[in-house]
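== Fold encoding ==
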Amino acid sequence: MAEILPTANACDCHVHIIGPKVRFPLATPRSYTPVDAPLPDLEAMMARLGLERAVIVQPSIYGSDNACTLDALDRLGPKARAVAVLGPRTPLSMLDDLDQRGVRGLRVNIVSHGTKSTAEIRDELRAAADLCARNNWHVQAFVSASALETIAPLVRELPVPVVFDHFAMVPPREADGPAADTVCRLLEEGRAWVKLSGSYRLADNPFDPALDRLAARYAAANPNHLVWASDWPHTPEHTGISGGDERELPYRDMDTRGLLGLFDRWVGEAHRERILVTNPARLYGFT
């Protein structure tokens, strides 16, 4: 695996902070219970990989209680931004406070919360977009590839951009299929962004060469709307069924440095500065 040399102001655009759970208890019910992944562990990972910035994403197991995410955001200061989860009736004053603290988007997580109808997915995206519009945030959408074609018309109508998690969840063997075609069109139109992340969610082998074709298609469609992320600390394997299980599960054993090393293979060295630095600075408002 090729070594990626440190790039000044490189950003990991999707990480989670979990715990300490004695201070930040998890939501109930929830689909899994991980061990703690506190802020010092994130900072150690960033130092090992030469990453200087991070985007903390609210995980499903905290629901809409953003306390843990915001605590880490406040402690990291200007080198961090966050994506929160909020209810549709959030007061405008809270939105403005979160914007001042560094929140830059709201996450709509469909994959982690079971099967939902197309109408429900659209309603959640629209409600999040209405909140995001106040401060020019974006909607971060964690949706299955099967939903992409049906929600694409709504994505084009929303007043804010949509950022798709984890390769837009398109399986690598379907890199030339209709879901990938839809994502590429939205990228070309400038309506969507894609995170090159979470390859272990899409293939048994996170280093599967089949992902190369999908990444290359996205880069050809619009390299200015791609960002990279480690997806640290790598969610434990779980059923996805909300059961409130208290057993702590270990995170997946991922070679995080190796995942960063895939970058040049996926999109080429020429895009390194753009995707690791310039694009995150625009999307998340880093100075």
Notes: The chain has a mean pLDDT of 93. The chain has eleven helices and ten strands. The beta strands are 11-15, 33-34, 53-57, 80-84, 103-109, 138-142, 162-164, 192-196, 226-228, 248-249. The radius of gyration is 17 Å.
